[in-house]
Design brief:
Strand order of the largest sheet: 1-2-3-4-5-6-7
Number of helices: 4
CATH topology: Leucine-rich repeat, LRR (right-handed beta-alpha superhelix)
Number of strands: 7
Distance between the termini: 56 Å
CATH superfamily: Ribonuclease Inhibitor
Structural class: alpha/beta
Subcellular location: Cytoplasm
Low-confidence stretches: 1-8
Number of domains: 1
Largest sheet: 7 strands, mixed
Radius of gyration: 19 Å
GO cellular component, one term: cytoplasm
Helix content: 10-25%
Strand content: 5-15%
Shape: elongated
CATH class: Alpha Beta
Protein name: Leucine-rich repeat-containing protein 51
InterPro entries: Leu-rich_rpt (IPR001611), LRR_dom_sf (IPR032675)
Mean pLDDT: 91
Oligomer: single chain
Pfam families: LRR_9
Order of helices and strands: HEEHEEEHEEH
């Protein structure tokens, strides 16, 4: 990747916006035109978008099959993807493919059908994740929802569109001590 291409890839670029397109499967992105915004999308010489933001909100996606492949066909530098909006779809889990985008700093998953709070654990490997939304999913009803997410993802600064305060962190730590049992270390019998 040339330095010039890298410099041209920016969060300031308008997003590649496929919101409200009735998209059922990720492959549909290849035949669908993205929405146009106030500023035009810039493209590389190969015709791929130079943005770092992909908006897929308000569609009918229930899985992310072929996500990496399709994103690599749409974006010049998919490894620089920093913002993914998958809000208001029909996702029931957090697909592990999202954890392969190490520059991801904003991830919107609100208004889906994510059932298990443990799904959040998958996101702990994302070093730059700072803003996450999960409200409007069934997991929001689980006891300790906010505290669990803040314990699992200590680097996030905004959760469900509200800033994470020092008091939130303290409450989450107390909750963790009261609710998450440390893993027991098993000692082999013959080691004694």
């Amino acid at each position: 990747m040339s330095r010039q291409d890298y410099m041209n890839t920016s969060v300031q670029e308008p997003p590649l916006d496929y919101s409200f397109r009735s998209i059922h499967v990720i492959q549909d992105l290849l035949s669908e035109e993205p929405r146009t915004g106030l500023r035009p999308l810039r493209h590389s010489k190969s015709g791929k978008s130079l943005t770092q933001s992909l908006w897929l909100n308000n569609n009918v996606l229930n899985d992310l099959r072929d996500f990496s492949h399709v994103v690599s066909l749409l974006l010049e530098h998919p490894e620089n993807l920093a913002w993914i909006d998958l809000s208001f779809n029909d996702l029931t889990s957090i697909d592990p493919v999202l954890t392969t985008f190490f520059n991801l700093s904003v991830l919107y998953l609100h208004g889906n059908s994510i059932q298990r709070l443990g799904e959040v654990n998958k996101l702990a490997v994302l070093p730059r994740l700072r803003s996450l939304t999960l409200h409007g999913n069934p997991i929001e009803e689980e006891k300790g929802y906010r505290q669990y997410v803040l314990c699992t993802l200590p680097r996030i600064t905004t959760f469900d569109f509200s800033g994470v305060t020092k008091a939130d962190r303290t409450t989450a730590e107390v909750w963790k001590r009261m609710n998450i049992k440390p893993k027991k270390v098993r000692i082999k019998q013959n080691a004694l």
